[in-house]
Specification:
It holds the Pfam family Seryl_tRNA_N. The chain contains 13 helices and 18 strands. It is of the alpha+beta class. The protein has 2 domains: about 5-115, Serine-tRNA synthetase, tRNA binding domain (Helix Hairpins, Orthogonal Bundle); about 130-435, BirA Bifunctional Protein, domain 2 (2-Layer Sandwich). A hairpin with a 4-residue loop joins strand 6 (about 235) and strand 7. Helix 3 packs antiparallel against helix 4 and helix 6 packs across helix 13. It is elongated and about 115 Å long. The structure holds one RNA strand.
Length: about 450
RNA sequence: GGCGAGGUGGCGGAGCGGCCGAUCGCAGCCGCCUUGAAAGCGGCCGUGGGGAAACUCACCGGGGGUUCAAAUCCCUCCCUCGCCGCCA
């Protein structure tokens, strides 16, 4: 959620953000009304409760006096005082109960509306839908296969030729959009994991292996139960969720905590399986492993101060670029448009790798600045002197396995069907320089 | 899965149903003392909401209940620890 003060002092900023996202603007007005109602009903409850407490404080001594009374006159006197007080208290108790129930209800309404407000978009983000991104940079030269004299094969052909990817058996065992990484394929993933972790650690990240199942509070807190909910697997029986990214367990790791500002930034590199329902993507990327229900990913996640968030966002982007460049993959960087940010991000940069057989750049990493949005929901604060305030969280993909493997296979394939191994990866593959089919 | 014990402020650890947002110790902060430090002494020392402020309300694992009044009694769920069973 965003700073409630903005709602009270500058609601137009929120309206503008919602408008740029293509989301409800009316909800802002509903929320303003609900916010006022919430505060006034809470005030009513406070007052009544205060009266009840004041009354309650008189009750003890009075009953004590009643007990100690020896003669009938004082006893009767005390008794009548107790009775009168009790009568008042009973009436008040009902009023308190009613006010409490009302305040609760009103607060719930307001809270629910708050969850419908997405993070404030960064005003520098391009406005529009999925196609309205701006291109920030293009790096590397796509290979000219015509000039090289052969037709590039797609990653699945290559993967099958190398006996590295098996989607047929994936589908047999688990259904469509599941796959096996086998032999070279599995080794490649381990090599990528090690390269990614080595880079992350040298950049000050703490490696983390996270749970892949989380409670609703973690999902809610990271903002994945809004529009993104349809893509989340839920285990009904236990009321838990499979994470679509380790961003969720990493963000929630410090939930309900107050972190000393001197410890920031805290950087984690999380490794976990990721699960996505891919609802509403029927027919898209049905071939190969570009869009799958389960994959592994190394994710960078940072807790920092809000004033450092934008600079950190640039650093995350740079680290993503470093990794892609180490793998010698041509790519471009895009500034994602407001309509395609997701509810948590204020700004998002995607890196898209060149995929030769598609003649297109396809998303392989994504880094988001969520400012204080997730931290507010997850109650993660920082202590600066005697002040506590929400901190900022950011996330960025370091290495999403299937898509990186796709990019490596397609971009580094050779005419003879082998795949060249980029230098940076060779130390993690026993010094091997190319992938060839198993004997 | 079964039985037992327990969940209180950064940590430890109290808390007859009203005087408890909570005694005390440690850690931390400020001051005094000291050439400096330690010790000692004095003070401060949870989080959040509302309010300009005075002040006020909420929170003692979560939720519900009893009561005029709940950290304290009842129900329920969760978690931690111990033992047993089962499985890695």
């Amino acid at each position: 959620m965003i700073d409630p003060n903005i709602l009270r002092t500058d609601p137009d900023r929120i309206r503008e953000s919602q408008r740029r996202r293509g989301e409800s603007v009316e909800v802002v007005d509903l929320l303003i009304a609900a916010d006022i109602a919430k505060r006034s009903s809470a005030q009513e409850f406070d007052d009544l409760r205060n009266q009840q407490k004041v009354l309650g404080k008189q009750m003890g001594p009075l009953q004590g006096a009643l007990k100690k009374a020896t003669d009938d006159a004082t006893k009767a006197q005390a008794q009548s005082e107790v009775d009168a007080l009790m009568e008042q208290a009973t009436i008040l108790a009902d009023a308190v109960k009613a006010a409490d129930a009302h305040a609760d209800e009103v607060a719930r309404t307001a809270d629910k509306l708050w969850l419908q407000i997405s993070n404030l978009v960064n005003l520098d983000s391009p406005v529009g839908g999925e196609a309205d991104f701006t291109i920030l940079d293009v790096v590397g030269e796509p290979r000219d296969f015509t000039k090289e004299g052969f037709e590039p094969k797609d990653h699945l052909d290559i993967g099958e030729h190398l006996d590295a990817i098996d989607t047929v058996r994936g589908a047999k065992v688990s259904g469509s959009r599941f796959f096996y990484l086998k032999g070279i394929g599995a080794q490649l993933e381990f090599a990528l994991l090690n390269l990614a972790m080595q880079q992350a650690v040298s950049n000050g990240f703490i490696p983390m292996i996270t749970p892949a199942i989380v409670l609703p509070s973690a999902m809610e807190g990271t903002g994945f139960l809004g529009q993104a909910a349809e893509n989340v697997y839920r285990l009904e029986e236990d009321d838990v969720y499979l994470v679509g990214t380790s961003e969720v367990p990493l963000a929630a790791y410090h939930s309900d905590e107050i972190i000393d500002v001197n410890q920031l930034p805290i950087r984690y590199a999380g490794w976990s399986s990721c699960f996505r329902r891919e609802a509403g993507s029927y027919g898209k990327d049905t071939r190969g492993i570009i869009r799958v229900h389960q994959f592994d990913k190394v994710e960078m996640f940072v807790f920092t101060t809000p004033d450092q968030a934008e600079a950190e966002h640039q650093r995350l982007l740079q680290w993503e670029r470093d990794f892609i460049e180490a793998l010698e993959i041509p790519y471009r960087v895009i500034d994602v448009a407001t309509g395609d940010l997701g509810s948590s991000a204020s700004r998002k940069f995607d890196i898209e790798a060149w995929i030769p057989t598609q003649g297109a750049y396809r998303e392989i990493t994504s880094t988001s600045n969520t400012n204080e949005f997730q931290a507010r929901r997850l109650k993660i604060r920082m202590r600066d002197g005697d002040k506590t305030s929400p901190l900022a969280t950011l996330n960025g993909t370091l290495c999403a396995m299937p898509r990186i493997i796709v990019a490596i296979f397609e971009n580094h394939q050779q005419a003879d069907g082998s795949v060249r191994i980029p230098k940076a990866l060779q130390p993690f593959l026993g010094g091997k320089t190319s992938f060839t089919p198993p004997a």
